[in-house]
Write a structure and sequence with these properties.
The protein has 244 residues and is of the alpha/beta class. The protein has 11 helices and 10 strands. The two termini are 15 Å apart.
């Protein structure tokens, strides 16, 4: 049987561009999000952080959803952005969401918290203030590292993640036989995905966004793991290699 499908597990989003890119290399998109994303009521502390945006030196958007759910409340209060504020996006997709609104963020070469921490603007930040826009919960690596460097760091938490439950396995045995590869975008998604699949899927190529997530995948029994920068061009390039 020809393996002509790619399983995409990221939640929501507009996958038209990626599906078109797959079609150009004769692959089909199988979209099965493992997470549901929902907005949350912004608490009093976060509302205060929005009100005090002009007191921050840096604002960091940690995902595309942080822009989708966080930029609106910020724009409602700030029709003009504070002049001194430096904008950061964890990766290219997040950056594009900001660019669509006229904001030109700084983006690290490595699309991760670790990549952000390598940026020169976030290295010498004693007594500077940083606002991180993100979902409820998640890794504390970025905040803890910035605090160790002397920064004052606050969160603006604007959405929550929950597991997307399926009545059976996330992919049927017939679909598994046609899968070329699976794409997972985070350690959290990987943990959920691991609970929803058969052993056969663990032996198919798995594309993950970093060496850290790749290590977790191998520990959980995935045998063909590739750490690939989570942008369409890099993913397509890896899929072409696998296809050939």
């Amino acid at each position: 049987m020809i393996r002509d499908s790619v399983l995409l597990t990221r939640a929501g989003g507009n996958n038209t561009k990626f599906a078109t890119a797959l079609d150009e290399i004769s692959l089909k998109l199988l979209h099965r999000p493992v997470l549901q994303i929902e907005p949350v009521d912004i608490g009093a502390r976060c509302l205060e952080n929005i009100e005090n945006l002009d007191l921050y030196d840096h604002i960091i958007f940690i995902s595309t959803n942080s822009v989708i759910y966080g930029l609106g409340p910020l724009m409602d209060r700030w029709p003009q952005w504070p002049v001194k504020l430096k904008w950061f996006a964890v990766g290219d997709s997040t950056a594009n969401q900001l660019r669509d609104t006229g904001i030109a963020p700084i983006v690290p070469q490595k699309y991760s918290s670790e990549g952000l921490l390598e940026l020169p603007w976030l290295k010498s930040i004693q007594q500077q203030r940083v606002l991180i826009v993100r979902g409820v919960g998640g890794r504390e690596t970025l905040k803890q590292a910035l605090i160790k460097r002397g920064a004052v760091v606050d969160y603006l938490e604007v959405y929550k993640r929950s597991e997307n439950h399926w009545s059976g396995e996330i992919v049927t045995p017939f679909e598994v036989d046609k899968l070329l590869a699976t794409i997972v975008y985070s350690a959290e998604s990987l943990m959920i995905f691991d609970r929803q699949i058969s052993d056969a899927v663990r032996h198919l190529p798995l594309l993950v966004p970093s060496s850290r997530v790749a290590g977790i995948a191998r520990e959980r029994g995935f045998t063909r793991v590739f750490a690939v920068q989570p942008k369409d061009e890099a993913l397509i390039g890896q899929l072409v290699d696998l296809k050939n």
